[in-house]
Amino acid sequence: MRGMTVKDLLEAKGKRQMAYVQVAREEEAVAAAEAGMDMIGTAFIPERAHFAKAAAGAHFQFGLPWGKHADVTEALRDAMAAMQAGAQSVYCGMSPTLVEGLAREGIPVICHVGLVPPKATWTGGYRAVGKTLDQAQMIWQQVRDFEAAGAFAVEMEVVPANLACEITKRTSLLTVSLGSGGDCDVQYLFSADLLGENRGHIPRHAKVYRNFAAERDRMQDDRIAAYREYIADVTSGAFPEAGQITQMEDSALADFLSKI
């Protein structure tokens, strides 16, 4: 079963909410596809380049890592490699100028506004962006610039929900909400938050559905216990047992001994 194409996603805009998850492990990508996730994403790095083909049935997006690409040519080379690896779209957190270069070559691009972590110093750190008139106008202009550059979607991170709602009504871009309310076209979470992998601070916009951190703690305790039991068995001579070894026939052993 093929995943949703860009055309499918844009046709679904305003008709139904879609679910999108960021994964870090192949088994997460496979599980998300099996669950019926509309969109799955991960960073385009060598150890994850096979994820798209492992997660058939979902729209798969590879993200261009921030700071890796110094210009359009470098980004385009990686974006094309990502598409060849099975992606149906590419995330790019860089400028409209760079996005335009990718879009011009037919790369479907998801851009980013609001709280953009590598650029957070410009907007006051890790906090909501868009609460003031100036910030709201800035976000709206950025959306319009990305739309003109040829992006097909925009991630809106920690933008006030009512502002994100109004922008969603007024843009042709598919809007992706990471903490920006339920009126965007797509809802987005990180698997690490959704599965309860993280300890300590949980982002306010995240919802935790499982407690994998506690399960990993339990498994680690079991690993330590198993290693200790093994060490004790080796020390006492309880390992190996008869069932874990093989023996020569007595006559064959006797022949061997006679030769040495």
UniProtKB/TrEMBL annotation:
Gene3D superfamilies referenced in this protein's UniProt entry, alphabetically: Phosphoenolpyruvate-binding domains
Pfam assignment, any one: Pantoate_transf
SUPFAM superfamilies given in the database record: Phosphoenolpyruvate/pyruvate domain
Keywords for this protein: Methyltransferase, Pantothenate biosynthesis, Transferase
GO molecular function: 3-methyl-2-oxobutanoate hydroxymethyltransferase activity; magnesium ion binding; methyltransferase activity
Source taxon at top rank: Bacteria
Gene Ontology biological-process annotations: methylation; pantothenate biosynthetic process
Subunit structure: Homodecamer; pentamer of dimers.
Family: Belongs to the PanB family.
Name recorded for this polypeptide: 3-methyl-2-oxobutanoate hydroxymethyltransferase
